[in-house]
UniProtKB/TrEMBL annotation:
Provenance organism: Desulfotomaculum nigrificans (strain DSM 14880 / VKM B-2319 / CO-1-SRB) (Desulfotomaculum carboxydivorans)
Pfam families: CxxCxxCC (PF03692)
Record-given protein name: Uncharacterized protein
């Protein structure tokens, strides 16, 4: 076991925490540990209300690769620039000045476009995004919350970088769903731990986390046994 997700009593009620047990832990190890915790919890935190599918769902580069790999035909994505096609048809690109935010698209009522509202199920479950996979419907410690945020933010930065690079390579004008004095700049989006990685198995947590967060997540490694 490379990652431990465990129950923790917090000020607002029952919650959970995350600890890294192996410095080579990947994002996929983290997602597996979250999934195990949800499955093994005797009081399942999810009651199936679907409210979390009415929130903004930020996307990472690997989320989009997963959608393309698993659902390309179903989603009608082209062969040449499937990432750009997905972003245009199924995402929501918001640009304010130099800041870019990319999330899943939503319906007029505000539901995720992949939510089957009548059955309250996800129609893209096999490829659902990092934010969906890593959500546990309970309070979390600060380090657990920061880990999730740093993963999503780093993955989205790489997605924005790819969007800018591929739009240029394809000779396509930047497709933006909502713009406010939009002036996105490639120089703002540097290569990071997600760059050139095609799956969450390839992304090491230590390449993503800030030093302070990594020290907190691995603090149990340093305790004398
Ligand atoms: S995780 Fe929480 S908000 Fe989402 S469906 Fe389950 S109970 Fe509802
Ligand atoms: S991708 Fe699926 S799980 Fe995630 S918000 Fe949309 S419907 Fe819900």
């Amino acid at each position: 076991m490379k990652i431990k997700v465990f129950s923790k009593s917090l000020a607002k009620g029952p919650g959970y925490d995350v600890a890294v047990l192996d410095p080579q832990a990947t994002v996929q190890d983290y997602l597996d540990a979250i999934n195990n915790f949800i499955e093994q919890n005797t009081d399942p935190p999810c009651k199936g209300c679907d409210e979390c599918c009415w929130e903004r769902i930020p996307l990472t580069s690997i989320d989009v690769f997963n959608y393309v790999n698993h659902l390309r035909d179903q989603l009608g994505l082209g062969q040449d620039w499937p990432l750009l096609d997905f972003l245009e048809k199924y995402a929501y690109i918001y640009v304010e000045g130099r800041v870019v935010d990319i999330s899943l698209g939503y319906t007029m009522e505000g539901a995720c476009r992949f939510l089957n509202q009548s059955e309250r199920i996800c129609s893209s479950y096999v490829a659902r995004s990092l934010v969906c996979q890593s959500f546990i419907c309970m309070e979390s410690t600060q380090r657990a919350s920061e880990l999730r945020s740093e993963l999503v933010n780093t993955g989205m930065d790489e997605l924005v970088r790819l969007w800018l690079v591929q739009s240029q390579q394809a000779g396509r004008q930047l497709f933006i769903h909502e713009a406010h004095r939009a002036a996105p700049q490639l120089e703002d989006y540097h290569v990071n731990g997600f760059t050139n990685k095609k799956s969450y198995q390839e992304v090491l947590l230590k390449d993503i986390c800030s030093k302070r967060l990594w020290a907190s997540l691995t603090s149990e490694l340093k305790k004398p046994s």
